[in-house]
Amino acid sequence: MNDGQRFVIVDLRIPFFRLVLFFIKAALAAIPAAIVVGFLLMLATALIAAALGDGNFVMLRRWSF
């Protein structure tokens, strides 16, 4: 049985300016993270397309008139 002490947080006082700075930092940190995640998704879809595809992609097909 866990006899640890329990507590409940009822109030959290954060100054408005510090909260704004935190959200600005989080938004700026999300930009490189989104670039890295986008690159990894692009790499994963390229590997799946290379493994499952036959090379006849619609966008790479030459049109004959």
Can you give me a brief rundown of this structure?
By secondary structure, the chain is mainly α.
Radius of gyration: 25 Å
- Shape field: elongated
Number of strands: 0
**In terms of per-residue confidence, which ranges show pLDDT below 50 for 5 or more consecutive residues?**
none
Characterize the main sheet: none
Would you give an account of this structure?
The protein has one helix at residues 16-52. Helix content is 57%, strand content 0%. The chain has one helix and no strands. The protein starts with 15 loop residues before the first helix and ends in a 13-residue tail after the last helix. It has 65 residues and is mainly α. The longest helix has 37 residues, at 16-52.
List the helices and strands and how they pair.
Blueprint: H1 16-52
Key attributes of the depicted protein:
65 residues, mainly alpha, elongated
